[in-house]
Amino acid sequence: MTDATFTGGKEPAKHGLLTLDARTKKRNASEKRFRIYGLAAIGAGVFFLVVLLTAIVSNGIGAFQQTFIEVPVYLEEAKLDKTGNRDPAEMAKVSTFGYSPLIQNALWKVIVDSGAETEFEEGKDIKEMISASAAAKVRDWVLANPDRVGETVDFQILASSRVDGYLKGRVSRESIAQDKNIAAGHLDLVDVLREQGVVHKSFNWDFITGADASESRAEQAGLGVSMLGSLFMMITVLLLALPIGVAASIYLEEFAPTNRFTDFIEVNISNLAAVPSIVFGILGLAAFIQFAHLPQSAPLVGGLTLTLMTLPTIVISTRAALKAVPPSIRDAALGVGASKMQATFHHVLPLAMPGILTGTIIGLAQALGETAPLLLIGMVGYIATNYPEGVFSGFLSPNSAMPAQIYEWAKRADPAYYERAWGGIIVLLLFLLAMNLIAIVLRRKFERRW
Amino acid sequence: MYDSPLRKTEVDTNASKISARDVQVYYGDTHAIKDVNVEILDKTVTAFIGPSGCGKSTFLRTLNRMNDTIDICRVEGLIELDGEDIYDKRVDPVQLRAKVGMVFQKPNPFPKSIYDNVAYGPRIHGLARNKAELDEIVEKALRRGAIWNEVKDRLDSPGTGLSGGQQQRLCIARAVATEPEVLLMDEPCSALDPIATSQVEELIDELRENYSVVIVTHSMQQAARVSQKTAFFHLGNLVEYGDTSQIFTNPVDPRTESYITGRIG
């Protein structure tokens, strides 16, 4: 691509400055073409990015809203607290089966009050409209507030995923023709109740803070618990990969002699960075679960596996950052009688810090979005319904992680889960964006000129 | 202490500070320095001159073992500082470098404050027991570096913010802060303008009262101006070594003559 080609000994024709010779014209044309290629490439990139973001947002934004039905539930004392002494231990004996009829009665009352005509009868016919989780939610509230038994309390009860889908346009009368979970009559009721404001959509915190739910309760599922799983994994990765990676890089870059052995290590670190992540997954399975007998599906194991995957990234970026520190700084430190270690830790490392931190955060972000290794160590498909009890169980009790949760939702049958998968992707992207922002801020903060 | 007459006579005695005998330096298979024998005197400025690639910088760096940082570099022969072999296995290069300070071609202050630049050496060598003593050392070093008056009001500002000449004098101050006995200077003025150069040269002349100074330079005028002894290197050999006045007026070796008259190099 150089223009300094030999012209073959021909004398170039004499030209004035005001007329362009053929060579210059050709060169200018090729320059112009190159610019157009570049702009086209950038344009294509931006276009695809916009398409991607539009698809993600338009598909996923619905997950942050959920349909609720406002139902005043009469908390009947005879059913919920037979002894009447409001003893929580006593009341806990009443299972969700004790609550379901109360909620159904209350909903029936709402329907009757609304004046809607319906072929349904009081009782189980209308239970398809509300989430199967409603009884558990009311029960939890009652056990937390035993004094309110005997009163009528307004609850925002989750509508079933079909009703939710109807409000969001996913479900229509045609699409439910074969659906055993809901009938057209239910949708008629929803139409009436929606006009009266009883059925409404509102922001769904439970999607962000809640736990995953079973296949039939899409409306209840949330990302919260798997977010915690990701958090504990990231803590493991950070605590292991950063010190090991930085120490290895410093040794290789500053102390190790150059010989065949270090060359071999260097080549293999680059190779490791290119190894498909699923290979690390199977390594984690073999090493941590089958050999070391660590618990399956535990964020600790996930973190260890992702550490293996992240280490090469951190080592490569740290070494690049160390290499970028001018040798004159090392000379200066050695020249005043600093030892190699003092020169490294007092002068080289602080200057390499922005690069190291950026590399680490990018490595972490990669690990945060990694799904394949988690498939193999059992962090996918596991439904953790409760938050871990403490830090210890956070590391060791089975959990999922955000990308694994998204993958899990995406493969479930109910289209309501499809929406949640997109919503999960939005949350994941926000996390990645935040991490990259942190990397930029840290870089700015630590960057120094020399 | 600088003006004591006794001291002056001592300067004139010029005891040998560093003596190199049959020094060979190899970079891998390349024989970079061949059979160099030289006596570097105390309280004297010795200039190493010669064309590029002749090995003068390489030889300079063997004197405080900065070559150790290059894996493929190998030194043979004997280099003694005050009668002690500096390549003896028992010698810690760090201790050696505290005695034999170095100033580099390109000014390379740490990206820290002016104060911290100078205080770094004394700190790591534990030369000061408290802040007041350290302040004193820093001030003394900056005065010796002939830069105190320019920076005394902004010791906290970054050393990298100074001009090139100031940076180089700061680096000299940093080098003298650890109280070395020998000061090695690797083309200290090559990145400086003529005014800064003359300031540094004046400074070198003053430093001679306390230190043995070895300076590598490309400029023969500079060697003639600042040094008392001159060594001419060519293709890895020490061609001629003697009093500066003799080298420049009456060189023995024809190669030296060709170089100083501008025919080679």
TrEMBL record, chain A:
Chief location: membrane
The keyword Cell membrane is assigned to this record: yes
SUPFAM superfamilies cross-referenced by the UniProt entry: MetI-like
Keyword vocabulary terms for this entry: Cell membrane, Membrane, Transmembrane, Transmembrane helix, Transport
Lipid bilayer topology: Multi-pass membrane protein
Compartments, record wording: Cell inner membrane; Cell membrane
Annotated protein name in UniProt: Phosphate transport system permease protein PstA
Natural source organism: Salipiger mangrovisoli
Organism lineage: Bacteria, Pseudomonadati, Pseudomonadota, Alphaproteobacteria, Rhodobacterales
Gene behind the chain: pstA
From TrEMBL, chain B:
InterPro entries reported in the protein's UniProt record: AAA+_ATPase, ABC_transporter-like_ATP-bd, ABC_transporter-like_CS, P-loop_NTPase, PstB-like
Boundaries of every ABC transporter domain copy: 18-260
Membrane-topology descriptor: Peripheral membrane protein
Keyword Amino-acid biosynthesis recorded: no
Gene Ontology cellular-component terms listed: plasma membrane
Gene Ontology biological process terms from the UniProt entry: phosphate ion transmembrane transport
Keywords: ATP-binding, Cell membrane, Membrane, Nucleotide-binding, Phosphate transport, Translocase, Transport
One Pfam family hit: ABC_tran
Reported function: Part of the ABC transporter complex PstSACB involved in phosphate import. Responsible for energy coupling to the transport system.
PANTHER family: ABC TRANSPORTER I FAMILY MEMBER 17 (PTHR43423:SF1)
Protein name according to UniProt: Phosphate ABC transporter ATP-binding protein PstB
Lineage: Bacteria, Pseudomonadati, Pseudomonadota, Alphaproteobacteria, Rhodobacterales
